[in-house]
Design brief:
With about 270 residues, the chain is an alpha/beta fold. It folds into two domains: about 180 residues, P-loop containing nucleotide triphosphate hydrolases (Rossmann fold, 3-Layer(aba) Sandwich); about 80 residues, no CATH class. The strands form two sheets. Strands 6-7-8-3-9-10 form a six-stranded mixed beta sheet, sandwiched between helices. It has a four-stranded antiparallel beta sheet with strand order 2-1-4-5. A hairpin with a 2-residue loop joins strand 9 and strand 10.
């Protein structure tokens, strides 16, 4: 069976350089439909660079990205979003003075079909489409992420943990087939981290969304991942189920230079 038949999304022989700095050197990895697939590695390993190649924030010098049998390597980022690949970022990327609901609604613009004229005067099909979309947000997304109580608040008034939930909600408004999550638990306390892990599991299981996750919290990675890919200095050094990765000697060596608590969580 061809690699492209095996995976819902395949990143094949990805090379990415910035001047003389090699960020990714021939990385090949793929995610199967319905998986939670985590990408881990020490700081500077190339994890975010790989996500950026998947959704065309960066263009690799060599290699290709195949999504559901189609080469999407050279497509624009907005086109990739419309195909069903949504993204969150390490840092919160929201419109601070807009409300939670308005931020979430922005995520769905790639799927709205009403034309400029009908949208501008807001009647007929445009109004029906807007109302159906708002219902989907309020009954599905807001409820899932437990943010009903803040939906009318401006984003800048919210604590960091809730802002990260709003960003996740906006990505879900894009109705993704694959959700790229770049360190969704970064900067969160234990309770907030547990909430995000629960939401990721719910999105995967109840919404049938494939997840590609970058996360430094090894407890989260080992608990919820179906498979794990490990990068180090732009190279893939291991890939497999969490139990296999936990005891891989190359992975252990890569993490020895990291903080002791990171290595200990890997072995826990």
């Amino acid at each position: 069976m061809d690699q492209t038949d095996k995976y819902q999304l395949l990143a094949e022989d990805i090379h990415l350089s910035f001047g003389g700095l090699k960020a990714l050197s021939g990385v090949t990895t793929g995610v199967k439909k319905g998986e939670i697939f985590s990408i881990i590695g020490p700081n500077g390993a190339g994890k975010t660079c790989l996500l950026n190649c998947i959704n065309s924030f960066y263009q690799p010098q060599r290699g290709r990205v195949i999504f559901e049998g189609t080469d999407i390597t050279r497509l624009k980022a907005h086109r990739i979003a419309s195909l069903g690949i949504a993204r969150t970022f390490q840092n919160v990327e929201l419109f601070a003075h807009m409300t939670v609901l308005d931020n979430i609604k922005l995520g769905g613009h790639v799927h709205l079909k009403s034309g400029v004229l009908s949208g501008g005067i807001y009647y007929g099909s445009a109004r029906r489409e807007e109302m159906a979309f708002r219902k989907h947000i309020e009954e599905k997304i807001v409820d899932l992420l437990e943010i009903e109580h803040i939906r009318k608040q401006p984003v800048h008034s919210l604590p960091y943990g809730l802002q990260k939930r709003v960003e996740l909600a906006r990505a879900l408004a894009m109705r993704p087939k694959i959700l790229l999550l770049d360190e969704p638990c970064a900067g969160m306390n234990l309770e907030e981290t547990e909430d995000i892990a629960r939401f990721v599991l719910d999105i995967n299981e109840e919404w049938d969304v494939t997840i590609i996750l970058i996360e430094h919290d090894m407890g989260v990675v080992m608990d919820i991942s179906d498979r794990v890919c490990v990068l180090d200095f732009g190279l893939k050094i291991a890939e497999g189920d969490p139990k296999k990765i936990r005891h891989n000697e190359h992975v252990i060596k890569a993490y020895l230079g990291e903080e002791d608590k990171t290595y200990s969580r890997l072995q826990a």
